[in-house]
């Protein structure tokens, strides 16, 4: 989340749409970006601050991936999410948790359609988003 906020502050992205499915309790109470800005997560969830940030219980993933304004897709790296992003031609940033998800992150990097966002390195996480935005262009698969 911090890396996404930092990229909003620099103007690299202009909005965040995040599906959390009842996992908001896993977020810290506050986040501080490198600029020194402190964000109260509850305010973001309650839409009190950050009008360009929307947290949803559920989001129509394929429709979002198909939208022309979608520049990147931050995903845990599950097979379904990766396939849908590839099908729609949207570069990915993979934040893996377990199982085959780290392999999906490695594959995305090796094949040039995404980056691995490391959990414990905030600078690398912010850079992963910037690299996808500035180095990997959305593509149009043959069927689009």
Task: Describe the overall structure.
By secondary structure, this protein is of the alpha/beta class. The chain has 6 helices and 7 strands, in the order H-E-E-E-H-E-H-E-H-E-H-E-H. The protein has helices spanning 2-9, 41-45, 61-66, 79-88, 101-110, 122-135; strands spanning 16-19, 30-32, 38-40, 53-56, 73-75, 92-94, 114-116. Strands 5-6-7 form a 3-stranded parallel β-sheet, sandwiched between helices. It has a two-stranded parallel sheet with strand order 1-4. Helix 1 (2-9) crosses helix 6. The protein is globular and about 45 Å long. The chain starts with a helix and ends in a 9-residue tail after the last helix.
What labels describe this entry?
144 residues; alpha/beta; three-stranded parallel sheet; two-stranded parallel ribbon; globular; UDP-glycosyltransferases domain-containing protein; UDP-glycosyltransferase; glycosyltransferase
Give the gist of this structure.
The chain is an alpha/beta fold and 144 residues long. 37% of the residues lie in helices and 16% in strands.
Topology at a glance:
Elements: H1 2-9, E1 16-19, E2 30-32, E3 38-40, H2 41-45, E4 53-56, H3 61-66, E5 73-75, H4 79-88, E6 92-94, H5 101-110, E7 114-116, H6 122-135
Parallel strand pairs: 1-4, 5-6, 6-7
Antiparallel strand pairs: 2-3
Helix pairs in contact: 1-6
């Amino acid at each position: 989340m911090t890396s996404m906020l930092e990229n909003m502050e620099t103007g690299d992205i202009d909005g965040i749409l995040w599906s959390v499915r009842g996992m908001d309790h896993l977020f810290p109470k506050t986040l501080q970006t490198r600029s020194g800005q402190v964000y109260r997560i509850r305010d973001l969830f309650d839409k009190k601050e950050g009008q360009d940030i929307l947290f949803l219980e559920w989001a129509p993933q394929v429709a979002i991936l198909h939208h022309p304004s979608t520049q990147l897709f931050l995903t845990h790296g599950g097979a379904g999410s990766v396939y849908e992003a590839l099908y729609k031609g949207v570069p990915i940033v993979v934040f893996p948790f377990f199982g085959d998800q780290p392999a999906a992150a490695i594959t995305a990097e090796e094949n040039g359609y995404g980056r691995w966002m490391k959990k414990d390195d905030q600078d690398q996480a912010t850079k992963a988003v910037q690299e996808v935005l500035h180095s990997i262009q959305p593509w149009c698969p043959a069927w689009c």
